[in-house]
Amino acid sequence: MKKLNLLLLLIFHLVVISGVAQTKAILKINHKLGADDFALDYEVQNNLGNIFKYTRFQYYLTKFSIVHDGNQITTIDDSVVSLVNAADGPSTLVDLGDVTITNVEAIVFHVGVHQPVNNADPSLQPITSPLAPQIPSMHWGWASGYRFAAIEGLGGSAFTLQFQIHALGNDNYFKTMVVPQSTNLINDSLYIHLNADYLEAVRNIDVSNGLYAHGNLGDAKVCLQNFKHYVFGQTYVGAENDDAGSFVSVYPVPSDNKWVTIETGDLPDNFYVEIYNTAGSLINTVSTPGSNKMNIQFEDSGVYSVRIICGNRTINKKVILL
Questions:
Q1: What is the pTM of this model?
Q2: Residue 301: pLDDT band by 50, 70, 90 thresholds?
Q3: C-alpha distances in Å from residue 315, one per residue of 105, 248, 282
Q4: Beta 51-68 vs 247-251: how paired, if at all?
């Protein structure tokens, strides 16, 4: 009888385990230049009106995690490192390993290399590792570590002026969280799709006059901040007009400290905000009578829906909290 009970318990345990299906998660980064596919030596223009061509575009991605199924967070092993080379093809695939996920709400990652790996000896890395010595080099030196991003190109009226942005530094190891464009399941692999617009890497950077930005300050730092805020298309919060033409702004993009500010421009002062989790449940209602601006503090990181209600107008936003 005891053996029978033990056998039944073992069968029950196996059934329970088999019901928890794991899926291979693959991050697919689609390389873009605005609406066009990325290509080296392709004439483009940044937000300053500088016309230029990229001749090199590489960067590291590390320390991934996935927000899913009601703000649950699955952390990917730190050994997953991707050296993205936009010239290698239309997209880069990053194998995040096996996960137990149904609905992906956001993907989290860092541009650059984390400590203490950033300041370790790259020659000790396995030869197949993205962190091993590369040609051209992605390592600046033991004290400074890896080039988080190595971007080069040609600017000027006749594309005769070379520019280089080699951005690095532990203080510039920024975390970003992005809502993916889409996800789909192919042959038991869950593909998480992100568009990366590399025009945004040089937003507000003058690349027309032979720029050399090497290090962790100035335009090199601006470049890494652009990766955090703009390159991966974080348009889920920000400023926009509703159908009635009223200006609404939700910022910062995204929030690092759990505080989000909402301004309603020319909407009447008496408005209120409903906050929903990813399951669609209302978790908070906030109002500030007599003001068209409010500051809201969230308790936890994750993805939230914010519904701004003023009279018969409703404006919906996504808010990401790192």
A1: 0.78
A2: confident
A3: 20, 8, 16
A4: unpaired
